[in-house]
Every structure is written in C-alpha cells, then in structure tokens.
Amino acid sequence: MRCSADLAAFRLSATALLLALGLGGATAYAQAHPVAQPAAPLRTPAVETCVNCHAVQQDARLHDPMERLRGSVHAHAIGCSGCHGGRGNEPTAQAHDPEAGFVPRPDAATIANRCGSCHADARFIRRFREDLPTDQLALYYSDAHGRAVAEGNASAPSCLDCHGSHDIQSPSDPSSRVARRHVHETCGRCHADPAHMAGTRLPTNQMELWTHSVHGVAVLEHGNPRAPTCAGCHGAHGEYRDAGGPEGRCRQCHTDEAAAFDRSPHAAAYRRLGFSGCVACHGSHDIQRANGALGTVGGMGVCRRCHGEGRSSYDLARGIAGDAEDARQSLAAARSEVQALERDGLRVPALNGMLEEAEQADVQLRVAVHALDATVTRAAAAAVREPAQRARTLARSTRDRDRRSRHMWLLAVPVLGLFIALAALKLRAVERAKGGPG
Amino acid sequence: MEDPSVDSDPKPLRSLLHRLGALNVPRGDGLAFVVLFSVVVFLVAVEATTGVLLALYYRPSVADANASVRFVVTDVEYGALVRAVHHWAAHGLLVACGATLAWAVLRRAYRAPNAFAWVCGVGVAFLAMLETATGAMLPWTRQSVIEAEISSTLAGQVPVVGPLLRGLMLGGSEPGDLALARILGVHAGALPMALTFAVLLLALHAAGCTPRKASEQTIPLAPNAALRASIAAAATVIVLLLLSSFRTPPLAASAEVARASASGIKPSWFLAFMHQMLEAAPARMIGIPSASVITTALVLGFGAFALFPLVDRRGSRAMQAVVLVALAAIVGGTIRALLS
Fold first, then answer.
1. Looking at residue B65, what is its pLDDT?
2. Do A420 and B231 touch (CB under 8 A)?
3. Residue among B226, B230, B229 at smallest CA distance from B21
4. Would you say residue A96 lies in a domain?
5. Size of interface A-B (CB pairs under 8 A)
6. Complex ipTM
7. Are the C-beta atoms of residues A55 and A66 closer than 8 Å to each other?
8. Quick one: A64 exposed, middle or buried, by C-beta within 10 A (0-12, 13-18, 19+)?
9. Would the pLDDT of B167 be above 60?
10. Number of domains present in the structure of chain A
11. A105 within a domain of the structure (yes/no)
C-alpha cells in the first residue's frame, strides 16, 4: 500500500514538474519569438473623404501620397484610413481622431501589425487574390527583422522598408522594389550601408559580391527565373530560418551535387572539422562558376587550400581537377568554334546537337566531381570531351568548305581585271584618235 | 495632218541613247563627278538587285527573321554571296556618298549652278544611311533590338513630330513584330523609292548643267566618260568580291526582347559619332535632357549642311572652312569610336 501511495505521489510530482517545465519552455519560446497578434482589421469606409482636403494641400508631403496610392496595388482595395486609421468618412479634422486609431507616421511595429491586419486575415485577403499567403506576419516576427522590431530596434525594417509605402507594387511587377531584379538593391539599401549596419557584426559587401556572382549574373543579365536573389536563400519573411543553415538552402536546388557530396570522403571530414559543406569551397555571396577559381589544372584552385603539394591526397585532387578542367577546356573550345560559325551565319544543326550532348555531360561532370572519385570523374570528363571533339572536327570542316566556296568567287576578279584593261585601252585609243581627252 | 512638235522617231530608245551620247561633260571637276556618281548609281543598282533576291526568303517576324536570314546564308545556293555583296555594297555606298560630298566641299563644287545637285547629293547620302541602319535591324539580333530602341528613342526627341515618329517606327511601346514589319516596309519600299527619285533628280540636273565657264573644256559622255564610269564600276565589283570573300558579314543569334541588354553592343560605324556625342554629354543640358538637345542639334545641323549652298550662293571660303571643320569632326569622332 505504502509503495503504491509513494508511486502515486511520484507520478503526481513528475507530472507537475513536466507541466511546469513545459509551460516555462513555452513561455520562454513565446518571449524569444513573439507571435504576432494581428490587430482588428482597419477597413476603409465605402466613401472616404480624405481626398477633399489632401488634394488641395500645397505641401507635397500631404498630397503626393494620394497620387502614389492611385498607381499602387492597393488602389482598388483600401484607402488612406485602411492603414492610417482615423475616421475616413469624416470630412473635417475629426478624421484625424487618435481614438479611432489615427496614426500619421506609424512606427515599425504598428506598420507590421496594420499590414498584418489584412494580410494575415485569410478570409479578408482571399476576396482580392486566391494565391496570397497569409503567414508573412508570423514569419516576420519569427525572423531577425521582426524580432529586432519587437525588441524596439528603431533601425530594423518593417514591411514598408522593403515593399514601399503608398506606391507599393506586386512583387511580380518588374517595377516593384521586391521584384527579382530589384531585391538586391532593396536589401542593399540597409545591408550595403556601413552607417546603417554599424553595431552589427554583418559585413556590408554582400550586395556587391552577389551582383558579380554566378547567381547575380543569372538574375540580372540573363533573367533566369530560377536563380536565387537574396530572398531565394535567406527567405523574404523568415521562411528559411530552420532550413539547415547555408548548406541547407544550397541543397534545395543543387540536390544531385549534395547527394554526390554526401557519398564523398569530404562529407565525414567536413562534419568532423565543422566546415559548412558548400560554402567551404564555393563561398556564399561571391559564388563563381566552378571552372574558374575552383578547378584550374595548374593551380588546382580552391583544392590547394587543403590539398597543396606535399599534403595528403594531393595527387587525387590534382587528378580530379585536371580531368575536369581538361574536359571543360575542350567544351569551351568547341563552343567557341560553333559560335564563330554561327556569327558568320553558318548553320549546322548537327553541331548544336553535339554541343548540347557535351553540355549535358558537363552538367553530369559538375555533379560527379563532388563525389571525389577519380574513376567516376575520369569517365564523366571523357563523356564531355568526346562530343566536344566531334563538334570541333565538324566545325572545322564546315569552315574549310565555306572558305573554299567563297574563294571560288574570286575567279571573277581576273575577268573583271581583263575588262578594266580592255576598257582602259579603248579609252586611250578614243582619246588619241580625237587628239587628247578634250 | 502630223503634229510637228511630236517626235516621229520610230525608235525612241535609240534616239534617247543618241542624245545622251551627244552630251558633253566638263573636264576636271565634272569628270570626277561622273566617275563618283557612276559608282553611287552602280552601288544603288547592286543594292536593289541583291535586296530583291534576299527579300524572296525574308520573313518579317520576331520569331522567324533571324532564322530566315540564316537560311539564306546556309541553304540557298549563292545566298551567302548575295548577302555579303548586299552588306558590303551598303557600306560602300556610304563611303562613296561621303567621298563625293567631301570632294564637292573641297572643290567648292556646290556653288551655282550645282546648289540643287548638292541638296540632292546630301539627300542620297542621308537616305543611304537610313537604308543601311534599317537593313542592319532586319536579322533581329540583340544589336538590332538595341539599335531599334535607341533610334526610336532619338526619333522621339525630334522637336514637334518626335512622339509621332517614334509611334510610327515602333507601332507599340517596344520593338516587336509590328516594328519589324515597318522597318522592312521602310527599308524595302519607302527608302528605295526615295533614293531612286533623288538619284534621278541628280542625274537629270547633271545632264542639264552647262559648264560654269564658256572656256571650260569638255569631253563627250559617250564613249569617254562612259568608259571611265565602266572602269570605276568594274573596280567596285572587284572590291565587293574581295570583301565578300575575306570578310563575312556578321550574323548574331536572334534576340529575345526581354533579355536584350545594351552591354557589349557597339553602334554601327556610321552612327558612331552620334553615339560619342550622346556618351560624352551630361544627363541634362540647359535644363533639358541631353538626348533631346543633341537630337535637335543634329536635325538642325543636318538641315544647315544640306541647304547652305542655297544661302551662300557665291561659295565663300569661310563657309567652306566651317563645313570642312564639321566634316573633320564627324570623321574624327567616327575614328575615335572605332578605335575605342
């Protein structure tokens, strides 16, 4: 009996302790990640009278916002009082009633909550667009920007700092501040400004590095819709906070490379040494095409950092880097010869097929090198070299044939030269017969 | 009863040739003009002939234009030769027009009674420039799109008629199928008609001209001047064949309008001096966008260049010096742009 009473008391104590721990943990989590409680939505009245006064104001700060709102994505959804609060249908100064929620210049937290009052309200927002997400406010407060705002950091960004205020546009609009071609500039307005970032440990050169990186060039120069902007890796509102760090984000797109890397001896070594898998070799914001700094035959590029001459695995690293670089040079030479032919208007469909075959094999080679297996890399490199070599041979024969046919036209030159000589003789005879050119 | 005023010659063509053969050409300046003008006329004829052959295969749409030009080069018998000759004859025409105008300025040959011939000559040069510029857009490469955008933007800056011109050129807000159809219409329809008309006016004027001085020596048009013109034309063909054999006209890949970016694009050599001016100018001049100021200045400058002999009828040395300096600036700007 005694034993079972003790057991019951122990169970009760343990349950109470677990409950206390659970509640405490949940409270601590909630404090660390303040979950947004969107305010009651501010709705614009059917007839808003703000324009009556603001349209005739001389001060540009008082009438320009109305003009900008007209061209924004919100133009047909909300009016002034939708964000600023107050009594939108009151045609007097009573419209600016603080008790009705009027805020002329809302602070960051107020902005986030007022945007969220509509954007976190699925029932409301679906009236305008079916596909708009409604979790941005919660994500925002779970990530660095939102947490900083919640902690009262005055320089932390709210929704308007990225999306704009009155002239806000849809991200799919090319003129939007958060359109793919402008996201880096929008992030860079703060993150590339040393004065703004003073007091943080963050560098301010990421925008510059990304602009010249393989991802930046793909987005800005080639308009590649899949290459990542800042938001592609870091998330726009905090989506990727728990995505496994920088390496986790790379793996979302580069799945084959990641799988090959996991099979390689690097996987265990990097874990042991605490390296970040992708970033350790490729960098982060300044990622370049892998046939540049990463794998030159002479210098072995980045491999030399750990596998330089005299170090362990030097021969293996040199062999892999050499095979890969040799194949890529072969492909680059073939591509250059085919492009030169195309510039001259010479079209050989078979050449494009060979080049495509070599480029597909190059993609496989780029994956294969991550496994760090010399045999696999050698086979993948041969698969690139073979069609590239065939393309070069065909390109050269096409060029020679074209040159020969062009030079055939020159047979007309002696005939024309003969005509000129005969005409000159005739002219001389005519002028002599008449006693000179006159 | 037969009207005596009506030519009763049963063989009018022979009569016309006989009359043309009886014409006399002044020695010296007149003879040089005949040779240069014959090269211009010959090149215009080459352009017309090769242009008609190329038009048989050309498809004026953004999707097909580049492929149709490529088809001519690779799949049509002698297509590469025809395209190369068309390309080099266009540039040769510009050089021949420029040489004729420069020679006329150096010799002050624009003076009365040749002022009208000068205006026609400048017109021929301008039309030839437009022909070459529009022709370069037809393969619809990245360069074509950028040049279409830049030229329509500049046309939009012309005072008063600018927006109308831009709308007419593009047929929309950005270069596309409609703009390409219009470029073809201008290149193969309107401009050749205007060019033929200007060349005919110039020929008729030259045929009706009399020597400036009664004492000036002359030679008969046929056979003396005609033989010289034939020799010049044959030499022109040799140059065209040599260029076509050793210098293939470039043909870049088709442009995708959305991806067209101006980086790495160089303007055609005959537009390089304008590009230099636009690059060197600040964003705004006297409170107006510099593109607008420069376009207005170019339109006025070109008008003055074409019409100055009508004002300066006596052909003063000072005016000749001004025109020579302007020509030297254009040539210098072009060379600088080509070397940069």
1. 92
2. yes
3. B226
4. yes
5. 89
6. 0.77
7. yes
8. middle
9. yes
10. 2
11. yes
